[in-house]
Amino acid sequence: xxxxxxxxxxxxxxxHHDDGTFKKTVRKVTIILSVVTIIELLCGLAIFKLGHGSxxxxxxxxGLVTILSLAKAFYITSYFMHLGDExxxxxxxxxxxxxxxxxxxxxxxxDGSSWRELKNTAAxxxxxxxxxxxxxxxxxxx
Amino acid sequence: xSSAAIPAGTKWWSGGKSPFNLSYGKMMMWYFLxxxxxxxxxxxxxxxxxxxxxNYWPDPNHVFDSAPFIHGGAPLVFVSIxxxxxxxxxxxxxxxxHEGHNMNxxxxxxxxxxxxxxxxxxxxxxxxxxxxxxTGDNPVLVNGEIVEMATTVKxxxxxxxxxxxMHNGHQVTTPGPVAFGGFFFGxxxxxxxxxxxxxxxxxxxxxxxxxxxxxxxxxxxxxxxAGLYWHFVDLVWVFVFLCFYLI
Lengths: 142, 247
Description:
Number of strands of chain B: 4
Largest sheet of chain A: none
CATH class of the domain at 25-47 and 61-136 and 178-246 in chain B: Mainly Alpha
Helix content of chain A: 55-70%
Strand order of the largest sheet of chain B: 1-2
CATH architecture of the domain at 25-47 and 61-136 and 178-246 in chain B: Up-down Bundle
Distance between the termini of chain B: 29 Å
Largest sheet of chain B: 2 strands, antiparallel
Shape of chain B: elongated
Distance between the termini of chain A: 81 Å
Largest interface: A-B, 66 and 68 residues
Order of helices and strands of chain B: HHHHEEEEHHH
Low-confidence stretches of chain B: none
Radius of gyration of chain A: 26 Å
Number of helices of chain B: 7
CATH topology of the domain at 25-47 and 61-136 and 178-246 in chain B: Four Helix Bundle (Hemerythrin (Met), subunit A)
Shape of chain A: flat
Oligomer: heterodimer
């Protein structure tokens, strides 16, 4: 069984794995993804059992589940989508823009909780206390 | 993760070669997927912001606690089935791409069919879940009266529990935050639409394989591109699963 030639003349070399290594990698990644998913489900069950009783513990488990999801994302892109087999420059053009998410998530979630805190204050529940701009008389503008 | 070993003396910028060692089509598929990741990211972060700004948010273990033939009390059961269906269909897609590298048409056909079947199974599960939520009737206390309420984009019955009040064996609640249904149906709908288009793309690829188009072309790169899209759909589900069902 012959391996393919490059799909396009633009490609200098073909990255290919022989059947044995390929099967081993696929099996390994499938097992990792399944096990991580099962751990995630157990965490979900733990959150359910803990309920709202222990806030800190629930928060820690939610953090753990988030990290596990990122690990799954890494395995899917790196092995199933073969991003790990591409050359470094290309990997960077995908990964570096995604770093925007770090700011994106932090900024918007902080904004959300600040909104909640404002709503819970006396000022937040009274729209009348908002500053209203003074009317500007015509010709008064500088 | 290992970067490919680059043969000595490779001149990337002398023209006629891709500096990324990728065909134009495959590279652009990656950039499309990156932009799609930002779209999904924006939706999920909007959901996060709204959720962080609310004093009360429904507990997913309470909302999604049913499966076919199981009426309540079984959180995470149905969604874990959906998740495993998608993981398995991702694995069969990897196998289809590999068979394509080996120029094995029969193998590609077989694994494409399994992948299509996985996609359809997932869509079926989602249809069941949507139907279950949209046709549910949960007792909710509105203006001192108990009304039966389903989960829609306008209302949802997943508010705070009214202590000690029961109705036909169900705990009575107050109406939940309005945004809940909109975000849930909007984001899972957008993902489900991606799954649907992925299934359509995979069916087209299956037909083209059957017709021998890729054998004539001399390579199965189209299967790889369809595969990238399909894995991306699985990848998005990892985060939809995380944001709506787990945390």
